Every structure is written in structure tokens, then in C-alpha cells.
Amino acid sequence: MRPLLDELDAAIESVNAHRDNPAGHLRLTIQPLLAHFVLAPLLARFLEEYPEITLEISVQSALTDIVAGRYDAGIRVGSRLARDMIAVRITGNVRYVVVASPGYVERRGSPRRSSDLYSHSCIRLRPAAGGFIPWKFISEGKAAEVEVRGPLIADDPELVVRAALDGIGIAYIDEDCVAPMIADGRLIRLFENAILPTAEGSFLYYPGRRQDSAALKALIAFLRTNLRRETEK
């Protein structure tokens, strides 16, 4: 049935391509961190700008086969994808920060060196697709990993941020996830003078057959224009 359904999709897109405004139904799969902290703040603006586009969003930690699942596109961190996928960078590189709540710092103190983390409660993030997000610091030009411990392990970054806000422990997380909370004082940035590694940013990816979709082109252009960091080309 897939070839027939693909032909139907192509026929619908050929009609939409001649409309004055992009229109259609876009099915997206996206990782939780990007769903909560990157895409969610932009949804109202996108849907207001493109009222004839309907978004159907599935939030999944694991990498999804978007062809088998009949998704139009996926959004994930990193560009390592199947060879038949087209990837479009939509954010710059990820910058990590170490944060804790004012209550935690008052109760347990603030670590001064990365080795001090061994005696602190740390909240660890372990995505479903792999192992723990490593807590790395750069010293003398080399990255060193600290094997932290703590009372909570989660695969959802939103839960990690919530736990940090509640004073459960210290979190090592993408700066974009917590920038507003640092700005308003709900979280304190630790190790401000330390150098932390960056990681590859996020990409929107899709199969080549979807490249003529007016709605998908509109979404890509919107994300690249409106995301907080300037897109790296």
C-alpha cells in the first residue's frame, strides 16, 4: 500500500503547491527535549502565521523510522541519520550548563571544582536511545568526565529541570532549557567560569520525497528564522 499512499500524498502536495498560502497536514516526530524547550514556545506563532497548516506531533525519545511511521519529518539532536534522509540544521550547537536551585545551594553549598560534585546530589539524564548524558568539563584543553551520582535518573529533560527547580539536586543540561529560569533567579548557574564542551545542535530531517511539500518548506524556514540562536550553515 505504501506506493499508493505516497502517490496520494504527492497528488495532494501538487494541489497545495498552487495555493497562495502553504497548507496541509504535517506529521512530526520529535525528541522530548526539543519538543518542550525548542518547538513548544514557537507553536502558537507558527500556527497563527500559517493557519491552513495542521501539525500532528508525536514526542518520542527513541529515533523513529519516519518512513515506516508515515511521518513527514522528524526533529532530533545530531545529524547522524539514514543515508536516504535529508537533514536541515535548525539550531546552533548545544551549550551545557550546570544549575541548581537557590534552596539547594543554601542547604548543600555550591561546588567550586568539578571534583566537588562527587559529594553532591546530581540529577542524571539518560535518553532512551543511549547511556547517560556525560558531565564533561574542559581542563587544560582536554575534556574530563565526572561520574556523578544522585537520587534521580530520568529520560525526560523536562523532569530533570523540574527536579532541579524543586531542589532535589544539581542538573547538567542544555542552556536553552534553563535560560529563562537562570534569568529570573529560579536556578543558579554553577561553575560560571568553567569551560564546558558543546554538542551538535538539532536538525529537522525528512525523506527526499517530501522536499516539494509547501507546508514542510514553510516549517523549515520558520524554524530557521525564529529559533533563538542564529542557525549555523
Describe the protein's architecture and organization.
With 233 residues, the chain is an alpha/beta fold. Helix content is 29%, strand content 27%. The chain is built from seven helices and 13 strands. The strands form three sheets. Strands 5, 6, 9, 10, 11 and 12 form a six-stranded mixed β-sheet that branches. The two termini are 38 Å apart. The N terminus and C terminus are likely disordered.
List the helices and strands and how they pair.
Layout: H1 2-16, E1 24-30, H2 32-39, H3 43-49, E2 53-59, E3 73-77, E4 85-89, E5 94-100, H4 102-108, E6 122-125, E7 135-139, E8 142-146, E9 152-154, H5 157-165, E10 170-174, H6 175-183, E11 188-190, E12 198-199, E13 202-207, H7 214-226
Parallel strand pairs: 1-2, 1-3, 6-9, 6-10
Antiparallel strand pairs: 3-13, 4-13, 5-10, 5-11, 5-12, 7-8
Q: Portion of residues in helices?
A: 25-40%
Mean pLDDT: 85
Give Rg in angstroms. Answer: 20 Å
* Number of domain modules: 2
Strands, count: 13
- CATH C-level class of the largest domain is Alpha Beta
Q: What oligomeric state do these chains adopt?
A: single chain
> Could you say what the CATH topology of the largest domain is called?
D-Maltodextrin-Binding Protein, domain 2
Query: In the CATH hierarchy, what is the architecture of the largest domain at level 2?
Result: 3-Layer(aba) Sandwich
Return the string of H and E elements: HEHHEEEEHEEEEHEHEEEH
Counting DSSP H or I runs of 4 or more residues, the number of helices is: 7
Low-confidence stretches: 1-9, 229-233
Identify the CATH homologous superfamily of the largest domain.
Periplasmic binding protein-like II
Q: What class, by secondary structure content?
A: alpha/beta
Largest sheet: 6 strands, mixed
- What fraction strand? 25-35%
**What would you call the shape?**
elongated
Distance between the termini: 38 Å
